[in-house]
Amino acid sequence: MRAHIDDSASEKNYHLPMLRLFDSSLRFCAVPLSVATIWITVTNQQDNISYGMLTYNNLSGLKYMVLVSALCACYALVAAVCSWVRYFVSKAWIFFVSDQIVAYLTITSVAAVMEIYYLAYNGAKEDSWSEACSSYGRFCSKVKLALMLHVITFCCFFVLALISAFRAFSVFDPPYVNSQGVQGD
């Protein structure tokens, strides 16, 4: 079922000029988005007379998002450079696996911050948690902005995961279907 898989076949699929340019553009776009997410989150703080100072360090989901954003920025930069190196071009599975991992990490951090934002905005009255955005409005606004940037970063990595999957699996022939076994009754 395997096609003639060699480095030239994988390299040939990668040299689709528009796909290669789009791939690199998405990787380079992910870097400033991730850096902006980190900057907005790390510098976000608000003091309240009644409740005290709130910073991103108080919320583990925000710390996780900063960590994942740093990983995304570093990986996107390294992968963009490596995508133009002939040795790595022929190793499509490296990009496939790493793009999948980064996309999954990004969506988990998006989910964690969305939960924090939801609880801060709506509260959980059944658990005796009041909403916090009325007291920390500026903090919540910056969390929302960082979350939107992080979602855009996820979209970049989702598309990159699709592109790398196309590249990794396009070297295989489609499955063989025996026409005699498919005939209807």
TrEMBL record:
It comes from the Eukaryota. Its main location: membrane. InterPro entries: CASP/CASPL, CASP_dom. One of its GO terms (cellular component) is plasma membrane. Keywords: Cell membrane, Membrane, Transmembrane, Transmembrane helix. It is found in: Cell membrane. Residues 19-156 form the Casparian strip membrane protein domain. It is a multi-pass membrane protein. The chain crosses the membrane at residues 21-42, 62-89, 101-120, 145-166. Homodimer and heterodimers. Belongs to the Casparian strip membrane proteins (CASP) family. PANTHER family: CASP-LIKE PROTEIN 2C1-RELATED, CASP-LIKE PROTEIN 4A4. This is CASP-like protein. It comes from Mucuna pruriens. The lineage of its organism: Eukaryota, Viridiplantae, Streptophyta, Embryophyta, Tracheophyta.
